[in-house]
Amino acid sequence: MKNETPKIFYILLIGLAVISGFVYFKWDNFLELGSNLINYKESHPSQMISFDKFLSYLENGDIKKVDLYENAEIVVFDAFGSLGDKLQHIGVKVPIRNSSLILKLREFQIDFTAHPAVTFESAWSILSALLVPVLLLVVFQLFFSEGSNYDFFGNLRKARAKIQLDANTGVSFSDVAGIDEAKQEFEEFVSFLKMPQLFTAVGANPPKGVIIVGPPGTGKTLLAKAIAGEAGVPFISISGSEFVEMFVGIGASRVRDLFETAERNSPCILFIDEIDAIGRQRGTGVGGTNDEREQTLNQILTEMDGFKPTSGIIVIAATNRADVLDSALLRPGRFDRQITVNLPDIYGRIEILKVHSRNKNIDSKTSLKFIAQRTAGFSGADLANILNEAAILTARANLETISIKQIYTAIERIIAGLEGVLLNDSRNKRLVAYHEVGHALAGTLLKNHDDVQKVTLIPRGRAQGLTWFTPDEQPLLTRGQLSSRLIGTLGGRAAEKVIFGKMEITSGASNDFFKVNSLARQMVTRFGMSSLTPMAMDLPQPSIFFGRRLQTRPDCFLDVADQIDMQIIEIVEDGFDKACTILERNRLLLDQLATLLTQIETIDGKDFEKFVSSYTGLPKKTKLQPLS
Fold first, then answer.
1. By the 8 A CB rule, do 625 and 480 touch?
2. How far apart are CA 214 and CA 318, in angstroms?
3. Assigned CATH for 426-616
4. Average per-residue pLDDT in the chain?
5. Is 6 annotated as a binding residue?
6. Domain 157-340, what fold?
7. Does the pLDDT at position 4 exceed 60?
8. DSSP codes of every residue in 196-242
9. Burial group, residue 485, by CB count within 10 angstroms (0-12, 13-18, 19+)
10. CB 127 within 8 A of CB 82
11. Are 371 and 353 in contact (CB under 8 A)?
12. What's the pLDDT tens digit per position in 170-220?
């Protein structure tokens, strides 16, 4: 039943509107309105005559008094003719607006009265003053009364959560791959939702909430849906940004409505995506003086303390910024656990590719292992995007199956950008060829460097040529591996110097220098791989939170900071000298490979290494040690 507003309320509101109209417009306006109405009636005579006849009456002395209306355009008079006829409230329209009529009236000594123009501005003002409260009353009834079909504020206070009451969410653990450790953690949540008596029998309370932390695209939302699908319970999902509104108190009201919805549908999974939008640390000064986001967070903390562990509600939140969350949100009793979902390794990527290739017509000769090897550091969403891009390329080529060629093209397109137009200038093409071969040759001849995957002169994005390496996915990197990567990165500039001299080096190595500088700094300040004291001396980044203490100086003395810069310069210079030495000793091989690359434009990694091995007579990797 809808709550009906009492009739006395409407009567009081209309009476208040009338009184306010009288007070605001005063009594004079109403008197003016009344006089205008009288003038309007008198200015409309019962009979109209011609102006000539009016002048004859005037000259005969039959008119004693006239009334002028509408700026002397209409004359109303009473006349008593010589024949005894009596004319009352007769009107005449003056054809020409000038002062001749006034002069004639004065000439014949006729008493006349000029009346103001008839206007109804005060009437419209009064009507508008009465109309506005009535309209407000109608709007109040339609939009603001509780239970109305147009309950504006009631709908605004409700949480915009997506409620999937069907137990079958369409996602199960078999659809989630590459994160087996996280799946094992969530199996006990599924057990609690299916058989809560097993936990309550021994006095165990399941966790109230869990936060899934991981980079974007690693399957955090998919994992939450899989839990609901496996347990067969409703899945209620909402984003953290849905709580943020311009109206004060709306966020906290939506939090209350969200948990009330969860209690009505328990047992269920309550999933809050991107919780860092409202769960950031309080007291930071971010968001304005009256921080509505902090009030919303306080309401979440209160609601999570309010429901019992045995209510069957499990709150799952996802974020990729766990470092900015408030400590009160992460304490036991609210979000008891924090599960990290990392980027998949090669075996995880193989399993993810199997899941996303179920509905793809992939060539039987295509090896998912080769694809996984080329996609180190890719997330599950990236892998799904690669297979989709490959399917699009296959459809454009009017092919029936997806081959490894389309997949490799999709990988390169996603990493480096769209394919550009080949260089026609032989000089620039030769410069780029030597630069790219310098990277590949230096990396091939180094002991701990990654294998060459592909060398090409086909432009992609802003790069005029590319050298691809297959990264070694070891959890720990040695100093030799880092040094080899540094030398290989400097191989492009070293080839330019060795072949063309200092005056002909190009700007193509600008991005290489950024990578080298970052790598060398990490070796000195984070990894302790220098002659300085083996400790972390990295300069801290300023915090965006005003509530935290800002550290304005580095973790070392100023003289040590100078030594850090000297160590970085020494490592980079030593790496560049070694890259030049390697290429000078293999100058003939460098020329032959650059000429071959200029002719065929692309050299596969295996063909490149075979060419180097046949020329040097050495195994795949020499015994060169990059740095002492």
1. yes
2. 8
3. 1.20.58.760
4. 76
5. no
6. Rossmann fold (3.40.50)
7. no
8. THHHHTTT----SEEEEE--TTSSHHHHHHHHHHHHT--EEEEEGGG
9. buried
10. no
11. yes
12. 677 777 887 777 777 777 778 787 777 777 788 777 778 888 888 888 888
Where in the chain are the domains? 7-35+121-150, 44-114, 157-340, 346-416, 426-616
For residue 67, the cross-strand partners are 76, 113
- The one-letter code for the residue type at 251 is G
Contact 538, 555 (CB under 8 A): yes
Global pTM?
0.66
- pLDDT of 622 reads 45
Q: What is the CATH number of domain 346-416?
A: 1.10.8.60
Q: Are 341 and 214 spatial neighbours (Cβ–Cβ below 8 Å)?
A: yes
| DSSP codes joined into one string, 528-596 | --SSS-SS--PPPPPPS-TTSPP--S-SS-HHHHHHHHHHHHHHHHHHHHHHHHHHHHTHHHHHHHHHH
Q: Is the pLDDT of residue 264 over 70?
A: yes
Q: Shortest CA distance to 221 belongs to which of 320, 301, 313?
A: 320
pLDDT in tens, 451-477: 888 888 888 877 788 888 887 777 788
Q: What are the percentages of helix, strand and coil residues in the chain, rounded to 5?
A: 50, 15, 35
CATH topology for 44-114? Answer: 3.30.720
Question: CA-to-CA distance for 257 and 153, rounded, in angstroms?
Answer: 13
- 294, 321, 339, 581 from 344: Cα distances, Å: 35, 19, 15, 38
Buried b (16+ CB within 10 A) or exposed e, 74-108: bbbbebeeeeeeebeebbbebeeeeeebeeebeee
Closest CA to 193 of 139, 155, 159, 235: 235
Choosing from 42, 436, 473, 496, which is the catalytic residue?
436
**8 Å CB contact between 440 and 343:** no
The reply, when asked if residue 154 is annotated as ligand binding, is no
234 belongs to an annotated ligand binding site: no
Radius of gyration of the chain (CA): 43
Query: Where do the H-state alpha helices sit in 43-109?
Result: 51-59, 100-107
**Residue pLDDT, tens place only, 489-540:** 999 999 999 988 888 888 888 888 999 999 999 898 888 888 877 776 765 5
Domains 157-340 and 346-416 in one fold: no
Structure tokens belonging to residue 554: 């580095």
Active-site annotation holds for 436 = yes
Residue 466's φ and ψ, nearest 5 degrees, are -140, 145
Tell whether 478 is in a known binding site: no
